Amino acid sequence: MLLTLSTEHVRNTVITNEQGQTVYKTGTPFKLGVRTTTIQKIKSNDGQYHMQNQFDVLGEIEWHKFSSSKFRYGGTEVETKEFIPKRGLWGRKRVFIGPDNRPYRWNLKSRVVVLSRDDASRAEVARFHRATLGIIGRKRKAMLEVSPEVAHMMDTVIMTFIYVEKLRMDKEQTSRRGVL
Prior knowledge:
With 180 residues, the chain is of the alpha+beta class. Helices cover 17% and strands 37% of the residues. The radius of gyration is 16 Å and the shape is globular. The model has no long low-confidence stretch (mean pLDDT 90).
């Protein structure tokens, strides 16, 4: 399944499915101090033609710079250091247990994030593709490619993706500033 993002800025984007229908959207109002991203999901109704522009709040991510950020979803609040802790030498991996009780791991590569099973198989189940300008090859919007294997936990994939891609973008911006 390919999900297209309206922008690479994952805290303020619209996510559409292969049919072009908006399935998730995120918004983060500007304010000084702690910012909160709200993730909304298309509301299920009695038929696919009645789903236009009706959304429910899936969850929120409260961003903190000097302490653990927080996920709020399903009436619970959990710190990211508990739900999706760092792993690896430079903390470029984030691990969590999915709703199916299986371990997963986001790998924050230098330009993309990749979700895989955190077991012996290391099977890749989701990958982010950044937008391209079309200078070399075709122009393409940012996309999240998700395996049908994890379709049952799409909400968790989306929430954790928003979180890890924001972390990866922050690291990229920091390293760019260091080079300048």
